[in-house]
Specification:
452 residues, five-stranded mixed β-sheet, 19% strand
């Protein structure tokens, strides 16, 4: 059998790195800082799960580190968090020039961590909706890294969708776009620069087979990429992102971290919920605290999605919570499990959830002309806020899981949302049960109610 005049076996064959293993490198202080942040905010505590959730465990992004070596030369590293592997791709003045175009300064003893999305990794399973999951998943990671750096005592300056870094990413991975960048100052002694990165292997990939550094996208990935709305240059259209200076409480050291390190280790996505109710006070405290921290981190975020908390029990504890702005509470005590299952596209493991946080926005802000950025910003804020809910829930023993597959119109009716709003993300909360599998990992596109 031949496909496009090239033998199928030849197309499937894998060529290992025949040039030999790249030489190992001793990581400089800035790289150790970045790996310490990634260890806490990205990798997780073991090989079975990451520190952040992902729809279908696809993790549709890549991570790059820009930092200086001991001789003062700026290098570009690519990170494989699952294998705890880091490789030096390139170094030289062109990387400094890219940082200058992105209006980012490389801190002394620190690093710039760049996140790039690869929508194909999610879209190959979830179709067009996979692009939405790509943005939500990357926003989860972005927020987790900001909080991890803060927890380690570093200062952070972040830029969303910075222009100028695209050429660096595209050179080593086509069909990807820069999502965000974080300039992280040196981590305090004992947390990063003065300690070897635990379990990480750092190698100089320039020394063997330089051509192999360039990932050649599968032809299906190219088709997927071309299906996205792009500008004439072939990149997702968006205006330049401005630098975001985090508030003093986050930027200064010797302050209590916004999130303790134990929350990063204890965070997990619930695979199912046990029957019964969870105290409404715990649910409301979790959501209120998450929104409060979000507002502290990103003050004046005018496109924060509206948040409606649906609680499946009788109204109680009235007047005990002031509640953040743009959040509303819906008490729906008679909401049957069947309705919840239908609203979550027949995902039965979510039937016994005690409460659902619905993040929604005006439909007009989600459907826009090419070149706008409202949709991206809404998804960024939704994913970032949901990650804060995860971390707060981990501190309170509350089971939680983000849900991207849902019937927006059905939830609109059940929760009494405005008629001109659409749900962009849902966060289910309740009592944990470890017995139920997450069905979206067992079926091709279960969250879209399609046949597996």
């Amino acid at each position: 059998m031949e496909v496009r005049a090239k033998p199928l076996w030849t197309r499937m064959a894998v060529d290992s790195a025949g040039g030999g293993r790249p030489p190992a490198l001793t990581p400089p202080a800035g790289l150790r800082t970045a790996l310490a942040v990634l260890d806490l905010g990205m990798v997780g505590t073991d090989s079975s799960r990451r520190a952040v959730p992902s729809a279908g465990a696809s993790y549709p992004y890549e991570c790059y580190i820009l930092t200086r070596d001991d001789a003062g030369t700026t290098g570009l590293h690519q990170v494989d968090p699952g294998r705890r592997h880091c490789q030096l791709l390139n170094c030289g003045p062109q990387i400094d020039e890219a940082l200058c175009r992105a209006a980012l300064t490389l801190p002394e003893g620190g690093a710039v961590i760049v996140l790039a999305t690869r929508p194909w990794l999610s879209m190959r399973k979830y179709g067009d909706r996979g692009y939405l999951y790509t943005q939500l998943d990357t926003a989860h990671l972005h927020m987790n890294l900001v909080l991890a750096a803060d927890s380690l005592g570093a200062s952070v300056v972040l830029r969303r969708r910075p222009q100028g870094l695209e050429p660096l990413v595209r050179e080593y991975g086509a069909c990807a776009e820069v999502h965000s960048a974080l300039a992280v100052t040196a981590v305090a002694a004992g947390n990063g620069p003065d300690a070897e990165p635990s379990g990480w292997t750092v190698r100089d990939a320039r020394a063997t087979r330089p051509a192999s550094l360039r990932r050649q996208p599968h032809w299906l990935e190219r088709l997927c990429w071309e299906s996205l709305v792009t500008d004439s240059a072939g990149t997702a259209a968006d205006p330049p992102g401005a630098a975001v200076l985090l508030p003093t409480a986050v930027r200064r050291r010797n302050r209590a971290p916004l999130v303790p390190r134990t929350a990063f280790h204890n965070r997990r996505s619930a695979t199912g919920f046990a029957p019964g109710t969870t105290p409404a006070r715990d649910v409301r405290s979790t959501v209120d605290r998450a929104i409060s921290v979000f507002n502290d981190l990103l003050p004046g975020a005018g496109t924060l999605p509206h948040a409606t908390l649906v609680i499946r029990q009788e109204e109680c504890e009235q007047g005990e919570f002031a509640g953040p702005a743009r959040q509303s509470i819906r008490w729906v005590p008679e909401l049957p499990n069947e309705s919840v299952t239908e609203a979550f596209m027949a995902q039965r493991h979510l039937a016994d959830t005690s409460a659902v946080l619905l993040l929604h926005a005006p439909t007009a802000s989600l459907i826009e002309e090419a070149g706008g950025s409202q949709l991206w910003t809404v998804l960024y804020h939704a994913g970032a806020l949901a990650q804060l809910v995860y971390l707060e829930a981990a501190q309170r023993g509350l089971a939680v899981t983000g849900v991207g597959g849902f019937d927006s119109e059905r939830w609109q009716r059940l929760a009494g949302l405005p008629a001109d709003h659409d749900v962009v993300y849902a966060v289910a909360m309740g009592a944990d049960t470890p017995d139920a599998p997450k069905l979206d990992r067992l079926a091709v596109a279960y969250a879209q109610n399609e046949r597996s």
